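Students often ask why inverse folding is considered easier than folding. One informal answer: many sequences map to the same fold, so there is more than one right answer. In these notes we will look at a single instance of the problem. The structure comes first.
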């Protein structure tokens, strides 16, 4: 019986929370005395642990939603303004409640009625509003300073529904936007809404994504749950994948091509190289005014390497200062190759034109990164169920 207690993960997690450290042998005695109670608690935990409810704002093509789904969340509503992205969500998950509308039209409404969930009962609100300047009216650093921005509506959802946790993801540059005042206002609004906030910069490459992509992750826990609900940030993986790991048997798909002139120049660039790796006279002719710019300009004529991760996947496949040429062929990545870099499953179909598909993939949160974050949120909510 003692062996069973020590080796059962579900029981062990319950025992650990209830009685102490695993290497304390008195734990076994305490556990045996309280075994009926432990089994009851564990049973309740297991049943609740399977699914939690979330609403996602600015849902895009579903990278974040897929990670949440894999971690054990049921998405009861997704709000997305872009027509092609909303069509992608609906086509791949017909059961999802996808609202294709401007969030400014949704936030003033009765959100409890729309999403069939009462305030304080929702487990999670997730999403990331595009970065926009705030008014800083009178330096109040409150919700009114955000009025007129898309973030304002994220904050309104938060104030109205009061979920247990929120997940707000954004570009790293938000930290320094408008000399840092934009993010400080956001933090103050989160605090005023009743949340204790923590943040971290996470690089997708550390979490099973063959791509260097940094994101600012802000997580809030409702203040009345402090001491009961904790959410940790995920630990980096030991192995960091490279393009060789993911560019195998990629399904055929649409993709852009370089003009013949640019293709011929890229033939001169070795894997992992850029403009400095070709004859200067050719590079200068190609770069024109960029030749005299400062900085390394390492994105110009950049060919990726199979033995390195991708640079951050962008919304456009071929721009002069941000090239991501295929490692082995002189062309941009296809839609499906970019989707692999973002960890989308091969059967996840994107709607719209080729340009709209590139945009959806480039704007997405990498699915594996989303999953690692969501898993930690799920663990925190599962512990809360046991405590409750």
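Output (designed amino acids):
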């Amino acid at each position: 019986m003692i062996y069973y207690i020590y080796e059962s993960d579900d029981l062990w997690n319950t025992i650990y929370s209830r009685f102490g450290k695993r290497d304390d042998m008195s734990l076994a005695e305490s556990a045996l005395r309280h075994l009926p109670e432990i089994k009851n608690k564990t049973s309740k935990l297991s049943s609740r642990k399977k699914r939690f409810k979330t609403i996602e704002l600015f849902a895009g093509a579903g990278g974040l939603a897929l990670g949440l789904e894999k971690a054990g969340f049921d998405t009861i509503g997704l709000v997305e303004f872009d027509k092609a992205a909303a069509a992608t969500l609906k086509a791949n998950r017909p059961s999802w409640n996808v609202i294709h509308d401007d969030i400014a039209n949704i936030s003033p409404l009765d959100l409890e009625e729309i999403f069939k969930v009462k305030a304080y009962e929702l487990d999670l609100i997730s999403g990331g509003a595009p970065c926009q300047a705030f008014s800083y009216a009178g330096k109040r650093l409150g919700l009114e300073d955000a009025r007129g921005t898309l973030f304002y509506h994220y904050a309104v959802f938060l104030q109205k529904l009061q979920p247990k946790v929120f997940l707000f993801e954004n570009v790293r540059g938000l930290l320094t936007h408008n000399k840092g005042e934009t993010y400080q206002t956001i933090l103050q609004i989160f605090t005023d809404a009743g949340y204790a906030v923590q943040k971290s910069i996470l690089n997708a490459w550390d979490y099973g994504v063959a791509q260097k992509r940094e994101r600012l992750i802000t997580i809030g826990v409702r203040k009345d749950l402090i001491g009961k609900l904790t959410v940790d940030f995920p630990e980096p993986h030991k192995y960091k994948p490279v393009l060789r790991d993911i560019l195998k048997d990629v399904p055929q798909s649409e993709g852009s091509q370089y003009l013949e002139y640019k293709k011929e120049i890229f033939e001169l660039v070795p894997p992992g190289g850029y403009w400095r790796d070709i004859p200067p006279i050719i590079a200068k002719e190609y770069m024109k005014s960029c030749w005299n710019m400062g900085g390394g300009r390492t994105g110009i004529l950049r060919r990726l390497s199979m033995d390195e991760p991708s640079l951050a996947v962008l919304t456009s496949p071929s721009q002069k200062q941000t090239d991501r040429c295929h490692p082995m062929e002189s062309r941009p990545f296809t839609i499906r190759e970019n989707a692999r870099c973002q960890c989308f499953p091969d059967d996840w179909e994107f709607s719209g034109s080729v340009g709209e598909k590139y945009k959806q993939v480039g704007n997405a949160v990498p699915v594996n990164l989303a999953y690692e974050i969501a898993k930690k949120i799920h663990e925190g909510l599962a512990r809360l169920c046991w405590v409750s």
